[in-house]
Amino acid sequence: MSDLILNGTVEYKESPSGVDKESPLFGWQLSSERKGAGQRAYRIMVYREEELVWDSKRAESARSFSIPYAGVPLEEQSVYTWQVQLWMEEGSKLVSPVYNFETGIKEGSWVGSWIGCSRRADGVMPVFRRDFTVAGAVKRARLYICSKNPYEIWINGKRAGEEYLEPAWTSYEKTLFYTVYDIAGYLKAGENGLGIFLGNGMEHIEGRRYAKFTVTGGAQQFIVQVNLEYENGIIEKWGSDKNFHMSPGPVTYSCVYGGEDYDGRKALPGFSEAHYTEEGWEEAAVYEKPAARIISRINPPVRIKERYHPVRVVKISDTSCVCDFGTNFSGWVKLEVRGERGCTVRVVPGELLRQNGEVSQEFTGEPHYYQYILRGNGTETFVPKFTFYGLRYAQIEGALPEKFGGGHGTACITGIEGQMLYTDMQAAGNFECSVPLWNSIHQIILQAMKSNAKSVLTDCPHREKLGWLEETHLMGPSLMYNFHMYGLYEKLLSDIRDSQCENGMVPSIAPEFTEFRDGFRDSPEWGSAAIVVPWYIYKKYGDIHILRESYSSMVKYAEYLNSRSEYNILHHGLGDWCDFGINPPFSQNTPISVTATAVYYYDLLIMEKVSRLLRKNKDLDRYTKRRGKVKAAFNREFLDKQGQRYVNGSQTANAMALYLEIPEPDYAEGVLDCLIKDIRIRNNHTTGGDVGFPFILRALAKHRMDGIVSDMAVRTDNPSYGFQVVNGATSLCEEWDGNMPGKCKNSQNHFMMGSIEEWFYGSLAGFKEMDFDTAVPVLHLEPFFDRKAEWVNAWHEVLQGRVRVRWERREGSIELKLSIPANLRLKLVLRQTENTQLTESHAPLAENHRILSWSENEQDVILYLDSGSYDFEIQES
Q1: Which of 721, 676, 679 is nearest to 435 (CA)?
Q2: Which residues neighbour 877 within 8 Å (Cβ) at sequence distance 6 or greater?
Q3: Three-class SS of residue 530?
Q4: pLDDT per position as a tens digit, 366-418
Q5: What is the pTM of this model?
């Protein structure tokens, strides 16, 4: 197969619309089956129509990612095409396909006005419409919309786009996102109709049902702009104004936390089609532009990604049934039903059942339900528009399937489907192995990750739906092994900057829709996402631009923590939340000052590295000295020299110190022994929580104690992942014993404890860090050949392409197969055992010309590999 250039991206997206940045980033992948294939140089050419606006010229570099545009200023609302030429290492030249991107609207360039209406006291949501004319054959058509309120767009009787829960949740007073829709496929020559539903999102939360908090928003309003480019070259633009008319709509209750009601008798058939009779409709009100900045949506959209059908339906009364979808997920229920006009059907979603078989919302916020009043004209389809919930079960009241008597005294259910909603993130990895329990653990964590990936990374998809920040960095490596997280993380950092206080404090949730008290608002382990996440993005994607963009916020937070410290020790925060003990969720095993100060030290370590990268020499000096002071204070205050442990010897305290290399050399081995003994004496169980457990895994892996992690990972008694699996969990629980038989508690869909993923990918498969400081990027790979597994099969996609790892035990040997994409090299580290013998493609290393270089010491064999496929055999003694 010939060499090919694939997957050209702008801002890490393929063919994006609404590109706002002055210098967007370009990237591509190189596909080749040739060993050692790679580019020596590249040339990017960008065109607007047929005019060349940027020619990078030939750049002698193997870089194929995060290359900033450096041409003439980009014109807004314009289509650009681009190509890249590559000069290969063996002298050939490649030319990519033609890629494209579209720029967005500059803030002062919107055509039209902000329009809307005042909120109704009865909670009924408005709808808006207008007619418009398409004057000829359309080459390109775009609709831009910005709103605080969630919306749906309908054109000529069809819902536009596959995005849901738009717009993304933001700090509305500071940032509003607009979304771009390709509407060409919905248009027809002549008269057309446009309709818009508005609902309530995080900007307005009323009571009446369950609400985590309440907030009163202002008028419901939006701005729309439509651009029509005709085949004859004419461009027509129009925007929202008094030509839009509004009316109360069929959505009679809308609340993110409480649910949604829809009265089919108030439906407006045909309202999004031309020539609709607007009897009783009013002119839309015109409003001033909001003070917030308006930018194109950063994060990937939320879509319906998976669908579930009931595995069981149980009748629980003469008018009600419960559907079991078999899997816990985040989303909503699509219901098809027929019945008499005025019949009321209620859908109550939930994760658990009561003893009487009814759905329970005891731990997830009640009441939350969806209520539908039938129009009475055959089969009707109902699905929420503006909210979602975490569920495995759905209790249907007022309707039954036909086999249970539906249609005789109740409405008849003709169809039911669970629809799972999450961010349209591209998969970045997959893991499987010969140990069924570990595959099940991987799946329940993956399900929880997906369930909580909306426009923020929520803690849970029901009770809170808030962006608690500790998960974003403590689970960061695990998330990035499974998904391409750049877009969602970039949006998260925007939320953090918007929520950061003047004094530098970063609240525990972002966007900060409500201010918590009693230590919940200001916790270093949570706020440190402002420093740790940009660093993780850089380490994963090699993008220094994200560090530059975040640096000011990072400095502000580091200085805030310094202002809160007393003799270089912090004493505030939530600590090791949900650690294992008799009194969760508050930290029981480790003093708050230990986790807070350890994370502060980690922040300073990162700030030292980032200031060096960005050549902030004064900052570098300050953070280097401060880190030394915090390290000394940590050891002074918390190290028990006689006991060779930190404070009371908790797993979290010792592991955080070990991973961060805080102990002096004379004590490090003793602290490690203390950590191991505590795990062993507890029969290979952890006591760590939300904050501590990731560091326990990291500390053990760092000191090559992966066998202990393996022993922990096969436990099926409490506390362990296996305990959740054997007790029927289909997504990860909030607490270690969250699905205790007969005593289930709290959320059954939380990803915060899922950092074993870091060990699955980082140790069993061996994927470690990228090194971008070399001429050709290098991925460090160090697989752990655990004797509990007969085989491991995994892949992880880095920016250069997909890296595959498979190892399998044979009689007396291990077979290791690797596949490395072009433009990437691999540093393979294999741990030595006595009399280890190693061959690749049946050739000893000393005679193998396929390997760039290799060396060995008492602990390791270290090999550098070029792109291509490799087949190693490791003879074990």
Answers
A1: 721
A2: 833, 834, 835, 836
A3: helix
A4: 999 999 999 999 999 999 999 999 999 999 999 999 999 888 889 999 999 99
A5: 0.97
